[in-house]
C-alpha cells in the first residue's frame, strides 16, 4: 500500500472504495475474475493509474471498451483535472459503471453506452485509452476517428506490443498518423512497468470503408 499511497496521494480512500466495489459487485457480476481480487492493486489499479503519466493536463479522455472502468475510472480518481468518458456497449457493464461513479462521487466522469463507431460524429477527444480491448490494427480503426487532429491513442499492451505495431502498419499508414511509439510508464511503481502504444493522429481520421467491427 506504500506504492498505492504514492500513486494516488489524497485520492487513496476513493481508490480503496473502488477496489472494494470491484472485489464485491465486480466479481459477483462477472466483470472481475475471483482470482484477480488478490491482485487488484498491482495488476489493475496501480497498473492503470500510472497511465496518467502520459496524459496532458485537462485532457478530454474517452476510455474505449472500458468494462469495469479500467483504466478510465482509475484515471478519473488519480487525475481530477481530466474529463473522462467511459464508452461501453454492454448494459450490465454500464449499470455497474454508473453505480461506481455515483459511489465514488466522480464528477469528472460520464458513462456512455455504445460502440466507438456509433458515436464517432459526436466525439473529438484529446486522448483515447484502451486496455485489453482488441489488437492494435482494430483498435486504431475504432479510436482514431474519436480524436481531434493531433489527439493521441494510448493503448495498454503487453509483451506483443512491438509486434502489434508492425501488424498494424497498413492501417496506421491509411490513417496518416503522425507518430507511433512504445512508452513505459510507472517505473519503480509497477513491475514490469506498464507498456503503452502511443499513436498520434496527424489529420482528421476516417474509419475504414465498410468497417463493421465491434468495439468490445
Descriptive keywords:
8 helices, 216 residues, Rossmann fold, SAM-dependent_MTases_sf, disordered C terminus, globular, 7-stranded mixed sheet, alpha/beta
Secondary-structure blueprint:
Elements: H1 2-8, H2 12-28, H3 40-49, E1 60-64, H4 72-78, E2 83-88, H5 91-104, E3 109-113, E4 125-131, H6 136-143, E5 147-157, H7 161-167, H8 169-174, E6 179-185, E7 194-200
Parallel strand pairs: 1-2, 1-4, 2-3, 4-5
Antiparallel strand pairs: 5-7, 6-7
Helix pairs in contact: 1-3, 2-5, 3-4
Give the class from helix and strand content and strand pairing.
Answer: alpha/beta
**What does the main sheet amount to?**
7 strands, mixed
**Low-confidence region ranges:** 204-216
CATH topology: Rossmann fold
CATH superfamily placement: Vaccinia Virus protein VP39
Percent of residues in helices? 25-40%
